[in-house]
Design goal:
By secondary structure, the chain is of the alpha+beta class. It contains five helices and 14 strands. A hairpin with a 4-residue loop joins strand 3 and strand 4. The longest helix is centred in the middle third of the chain and has 13 residues. About 25% of the residues are buried.
Length: about 290
């Protein structure tokens, strides 16, 4: 009976949407679920938990690999060989703290041997009428039948309570990770931000557009001292920490977007203790 259900699920529910795109255009990805912030009031034991990966989010349409914004990812043919015809939601990833290198590999129009290091870490399938616990069971079955080591189902686990979750976040952060994701077991896949999919980490992060490079002084003489950046809401502030000397010599260009981390907001509504993390590739900028 279980086998029959798997077949019915795959045929009737997971069949991919038709994807049409002209060269240079974006592709309609269908629903795209985004995470909300973790709240301590939740019942932790009702959630599946996985490590939050700092890679490039990717969608498998059933026939091609695209970014969350619908741009084609030029993966080598061998990378997706044998992948299922069902849509998948995941992260192209290598290891913690390797975002810039991952981006340089997977967002290039000319794939090279470095793709050997990349894995597609699957965390969901964009099916809107099936609870997450059932979607996870079907993904386990689906990926186990895929004869290609590039496709990996990210480990999902359960924890008993808030204290266990706090210890886990600390352990992941200490190992160089960002934090964890919590997905309610009964949640349906939603288009947009979902209160049933939560991210829990020790800091927040956001993106801002570079407005100007401000000159450095003292040990930073002859380099960039800080960047004037602008948030999506129009507020501007100086971002002056988190840069290497090389990044100060060749900073992200004016008009580009950068990711920064921060710890809450000031009374003026500006990010508190903001620190540069990385330049954000144009093809992966959040909408």
């Amino acid at each position: 009976m279980r086998s029959l259900w798997i077949v019915i699920f795959i045929v009737l529910v997971l069949l991919p949407k038709t994807v049409n795109a002209t060269p240079g255009s974006t592709i309609d990805t269908g629903p795209l679920q985004l995470a909300d912030k973790y709240s301590p009031e939740i019942a932790v034991n009702e959630y599946y938990i996985s490590e939050k990966l700092d890679g490039i989010r990717a969608r498998w349409t059933g026939s091609q690999l695209i970014t969350r914004n619908g741009n084609k990812i030029h993966a080598p043919a061998w990378f997706t060989r044998g992948w299922p015809s069902q849509p998948l939601d995941g992260e192209l990833w290598t290891r913690p703290g390797d975002f810039e290198r991952i981006a340089s590999i997977v967002l290039s129009h000319t794939p090279d041997a470095r793709w050997q290091e990349i894995k597609m870490m699957v965390f969901d399938t964009p099916v809107t009428n099936v609870p997450f616990r059932e979607r996870l069971a079907q993904l386990q079955q689906l990926i186990s039948l895929t004869d290609n080591p590039t496709l990996v189902l990210i480990r999902q686990f359960r924890l008993c309570c808030k204290d266990a979750l706090e210890h886990k976040i600390d352990a992941v952060t200490a190992a160089g990770g960002e934090g964890v994701m919590l997905h309610h077991q009964h949640a349906l896949y939603e288009d947009g931000r979902s209160t049933n999919l939560l991210k829990a980490k020790r800091h927040e992060d956001d993106e801002a557009r570079v407005i100007a490079h401000l000159p450095g002084h003292g040990k930073f003489a002859g380099m960039m001292g800080s960047m004037l950046v602008e948030l999506r809401n129009g507020k501007q502030f100086k971002l002056g920490t988190g840069f290497t000397d090389q990044q100060r010599l060749t900073p992200p260009p004016v008009g580009s977007w950068v990711t920064f981390k921060y710890y809450g907001f000031t009374q003026r509504g500006l990010p508190r203790f903001a620190s540069f993390m990385r330049a954000r590739p144009d093809r992966d900028i959040k909408n």
